[in-house]
Amino acid sequence: MYKYEIILYWSDADGDFIAEVPQLPGCAAHGHTQEAALKSVNDAISLWIDTAREFNDPIPEPKGERLMLA
């Protein structure tokens, strides 16, 4: 399990729950249930980190605290 903040919300436009990881640009997933969206986003985090390692891109450390929201 990863320790990145995940924002989970319902999207009427998509008809699914959306899970986004603000610290990892472009890292998001969806699912018909909250649980499915969370499982999918954990898979997406793993893929994001694997890809960053492959290309020697920096991987942000989890902040361990709530991010500021506007």
Report what the structure shows.
It is a single chain. The protein has 1 helix and 3 strands. It is α+β, with helices and mostly antiparallel strands. The radius of gyration is 12 Å and the shape is globular. The protein starts with 6 loop residues before the first strand and ends in a 16-residue tail after the last helix. The model has no long low-confidence stretch (mean pLDDT 93).
Overview features:
70 residues; alpha+beta; three-stranded antiparallel β-sheet; 30% helix
> What is the typical, i.e. mean, pLDDT?
93
Helical residue percent? 25-40%
Strand share of the residues? 15-25%
Q: Assign an overall shape.
A: globular
Oligomer class: single chain
State the distance separating the first and last CA atoms: 27 Å
Number of strands: 3
Topology:
Layout: E1 7-11, E2 16-20, E3 28-31, H1 34-54
Antiparallel strand pairs: 1-2, 2-3
Summarize, please.
This protein is 30% helix and 20% strand.
